[in-house]
């Protein structure tokens, strides 16, 4: 496959890309990585699927926090399914080529879901702020209609922003090396392979990342700063404070994981990047964070544990009746 690079540099137009991924690893290493990532992918799918089932069917979890949490799990499932199955296939096959259209589609879906998740995390922080700082008006401010509008707006913003980023990534022709030094079509790497002036596209991607990543982060930091101030002002018991801090800490942990890896990928100069640095951060926000979200955010929650127990009880009852 490598000889194709010389032809491309002579002026041919790129019609497909080659995802280098882990092709330089030994067969035993690839087999180990396949087993590990398949286990992580299966675990992430199972845990997020369970969160969706519980939050959308258990009447005792009928609150905005769990409504947002169910949609976060759905976004996580979409995110990992966009990238990981393809990587698993490439770990066991020698053909790592993807068509131009497939690369565009994958990049758009990553943009859409990633941006939507950034916005949703900010809305979740605002929800915690209203619940803790304005408990008497919580039901009115965070009504079901408002929650639906907030979730829909995160999806719409992701779709619109994805179109802009997709255009900026593919606005120039591709006539250079078609080898992508990662396991999926990541925008900064693909833009660097384009002809013309990739710097303009990179600058716009950087500006967009500032808006998409830092604006929600400002809302998150502001919300939690006010939450912290409100908690410290109250003369509540230490156990009540501990429960509130635990809920906030869970959400902040998710935010730190997701935002840190995304900022490294889209807000750092390409001169500071390299395959050895890009892949770990790409893995962090494409599979590790979606897998950790249910553990960090849900399974420490007593209400969630109770809902899981009720769900398992219904399953066992259904099995007993079928017998």
From TrEMBL:
Subcellular location, principal: membrane
Transmembrane segments: 31-54, 66-88, 108-126, 146-164, 204-227, 248-268, 280-299
Molecular function as annotated in GO: G protein-coupled receptor activity; olfactory receptor activity
Gene name per UniProt: Or10ad1
Mode of membrane association: Multi-pass membrane protein
Compartments (UniProt record): Cell membrane
Protein name (record): Olfactory receptor
Organism: Rattus norvegicus (Rat)
Keyword line: Cell membrane, G-protein coupled receptor, Membrane, Olfaction, Receptor, Sensory transduction, Transducer, Transmembrane, Transmembrane helix
One Pfam family recorded for the sequence: 7tm_4
């Amino acid at each position: 496959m490598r000889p194709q690079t010389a032809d491309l540099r002579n002026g041919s137009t790129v019609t497909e890309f080659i995802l280098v991924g882990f092709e330089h690893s030994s067969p035993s290493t690839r087999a180990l990585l396949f087993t590990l990532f398949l286990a992580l992918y299966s675990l992430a799918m199972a845990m997020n699927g369970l969160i969706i089932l519980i939050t959308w069917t258990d009447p005792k979890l009928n609150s905005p926090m769990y409504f947002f949490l169910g949609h976060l799990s759905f976004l996580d499932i979409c995110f990992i399914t966009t990238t990981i199955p393809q990587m698993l296939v490439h770990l066991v096959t020698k053909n790592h080529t993807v068509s131009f259209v497939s690369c565009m589609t994958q990049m758009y879906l990553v943009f859409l879901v990633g941006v939507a998740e950034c916005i949703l995390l900010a809305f979740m922080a605002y929800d915690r702020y209203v619940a803790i700082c304005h408990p008497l008006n919580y039901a009115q401010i965070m009504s079901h209609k408002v929650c639906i509008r907030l979730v829909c707006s995160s999806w719409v913003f992701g779709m619109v922003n994805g179109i802009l980023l997709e255009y900026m990534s593919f606005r120039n022709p591709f006539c250079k090396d078609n080898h992508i030094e990662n396991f999926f079509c990541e925008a900064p790497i693909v833009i660097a392979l384009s002809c013309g002036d990739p710097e303009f596209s990179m600058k716009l991607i950087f500006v967009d990342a500032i808006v998409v990543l830092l604006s929600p982060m400002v809302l998150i930091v502001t919300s939690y700063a006010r939450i912290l101030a409100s908690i410290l002002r109250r003369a509540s018991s230490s156990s009540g404070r501990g429960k509130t801090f635990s809920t906030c800490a869970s959400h902040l942990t998710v935010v730190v994981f997701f935002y840190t890896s995304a900022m490294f990928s889209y807000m750092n100069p390409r001169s500071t990047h390299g395959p050895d640095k890009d892949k770990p951060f790409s893995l962090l926000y494409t599979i590790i964070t979606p897998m950790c979200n249910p553990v960090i955010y849900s399974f420490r929650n007593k209400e969630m544990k109770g809902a899981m127990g009720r769900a398992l009880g219904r399953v066992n009852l259904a099995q007993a009746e079928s017998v």
